[in-house]
Amino acid sequence: MNDPCPNIPVSAQDGLKRLMDGNQRFLKGTVHFPTRKKEVLASLTRKQNPYATILGCSDSRVPPELIFDANFGELFVIRVAGNVLSPEVAGTIQYAGIHLKTPLFVVLGHENCGAVKAALDMKFRNAAHPSRIELLVQNILPCLENIDEHADPAVQNACAVEANVRWSMRQIANSPEGRARAAEGQYLLLGAVFEIATGRVRFLPPA
Asked: What's the pTM value of the predicted model, to 2 decimals?
């Protein structure tokens, strides 16, 4: 099978279909990624034109290129613990929007996120964290306002993971670049949660 050319522009909806199809190949064990050739990478030396920007967690179990079975040059990936929107991450997303003009942006959380658990522990159990971890966790705290303190821990974490994805989405959408791209009508911002036990990516419905 010939590799699709990663430099052919696609729409946001086409990009979403590629992600969903790739995750289905991942689930079925029919991935293309192991057969990617270095010649594809060589063809990208002058330019990249990814169809999606993925803001995901640094967790070693959640590599976007693998779970979406993506080729070289197809995904612009930003990974940070808890998929939080720090100034550095915001600058990287700004680059993706202004210079790469990716039509699709996805905030990708995952089940049992350690950073989200750390935020829950800080909010509800007075946990203390090392200084730099605490700075990261503070980026998550605003989204926990409506989380039930007395819920079952597994339910609490699942709700908080989804709330954290939506919080990062809201910050991206409310940025000057996010509003400008939305006004253009050629931009799609979605949230998703990766189910580690099954390998399935669950895209979130609109809030």
From this structure: 0.91
